[in-house]
Task: structure prediction
Amino acid sequence: MITVLSGGVGAARLLRALSGEIDPGEITAVVNVGDDLVLHGLTICPDLDTITYTLAGLNNDQLGWGLAGETWRVMDELAELEGASWFRLGDRDLATHLYRSQRLSEGATKTDVARELCQRWGVRVSLLPVTDDEIATVFDTEIGALSFQEYFVRHRHDVVVRGITVQGVAESSPTIEVLRALEESSRIVIAPSNPLISIDPILQVPGVREILHARRDDVVAVSPLINGAALKGPADRLLVELGHEATCVGVADFYHEVMGTFIIDEVDAHHAAQIESRGVNVRVTTAIMAAPDDARRLARAVLA
Ligand code: FO1
Result:
């Protein structure tokens, strides 16, 4: 059994590649919920949905989020009404949010809903929200406090960030299923997701960091930065704005207490010795998952 700490698209691709190498029933993803939002009265869980859609083969590759073959009639009508249409919910995707919101109103948890959606779509990887409690990542920016999706989508992560807080996290608890997965899996993987806004909110849920710290030798992380740049999203920019180095060495410094092994890309091989001086083993391979062969090679490195 392996457990993968997961954000959105980078994690989804790694989970898909891992599912090609081992029985998907042996894989658990512990998923960030700090970027969840309530909009139009609907509860939306972008990272859970991106992973579910990708593993079901239903994801929209062009956008990197949402469903393939999407239409936008509801959003277009909403825009006509001058409603909140900056966060685009496709017509097909809306069914997921309606389903989840109805189930939550009936007393189900996000964990229940993730399991039900995976069953409907034949996804055999276990997807576990890190917590069923409400947590929300908030950005302190040059234009004031912004919710995750206001920062990420509305302002296209193009404002200066001074700090990030995860509201509610200190009072939250990991679910029993998450604790069991972290304690019982033979290996814990940190996906190539944004360290500050996808992985850190998971590590901040009380108890999670402590388990990884105790199991450090079994933890392997994949660098989300290649040659100092993130393939998608603002990881590089945020690292600099918050006082870290925007290289795989900066990411290694961020994770060194909770990981025993770090996988970096071939173009970053010259950083290996510096990372090893932090007491972290380094493996060098292709860390980009552009082509299926590369994704397979990365998955094999994670499992090796
Ligand atoms: N990202 C965008 O850039 N624009 C959108 O309008 C948008 C809508 C959206 C709707 C549902 C969903 O599950 C994800 C959506 N995303 C959108 C992606 C999302 O903002 C981020 O990629 C994640 O929250 C970061 O992991």
About this structure: The longest strand covers residues 161-167.
